[in-house]
Amino acid sequence: MQRCQGCSHWHWPAVSRCSECGAWDPPWQDVPIEGAVFSWATTWHPFGGTEAIGVPYTTVLVALPHADNRRLLGLWEGEEGELSMGAAVVGSVGATMVGKTEVPSLRWRLAR
Questions:
Q1: Residue among 59, 64, 63 at smallest CA distance from 105
Q2: Which residues does the chain have with pLDDT short of 70?
């Protein structure tokens, strides 16, 4: 994720200028893909271009403690019944087909 060198503010999504202090081109910094469940939603309707995911699917919003609790969205890899607010999770970067294009996507699962 991006972190401003001027004021240390974390940014997601990516920006070209810091919204806090106005510094240009905040550099990228490695952040562990781990955090706590902030929210989730299950989708039962197949939207155009997402047919490869299959329904139902659950998306999870995760707060990252190593990035001032900035939140990242990704697909849940597990049963929805395993989810709870604040549950510790780890992520990995996978791929998802959107239409005929493979795009990177975050995948979340319970931390063990």
A1: 59
A2: none
Which residues have C-beta within 8 Å of that of residue 112, sequence separation ≥ 6? none
CB atoms inside a 10 Å sphere around CB 93: 10
93-105 pLDDT per residue, tens: 999 888 889 999 9
**Residue 56, CA distances (Å) to 66, 72, 78, 90 in order:** 31, 20, 12, 21
The residue behind tokens 């996978």 is 94
Bridge partners (DSSP) of residue 39 are 61
What tokens does 4 get? 């401003």
All domains of the chain, ordered by start, with CATH? 1-30 (no CATH), 31-110 (2.40.50)
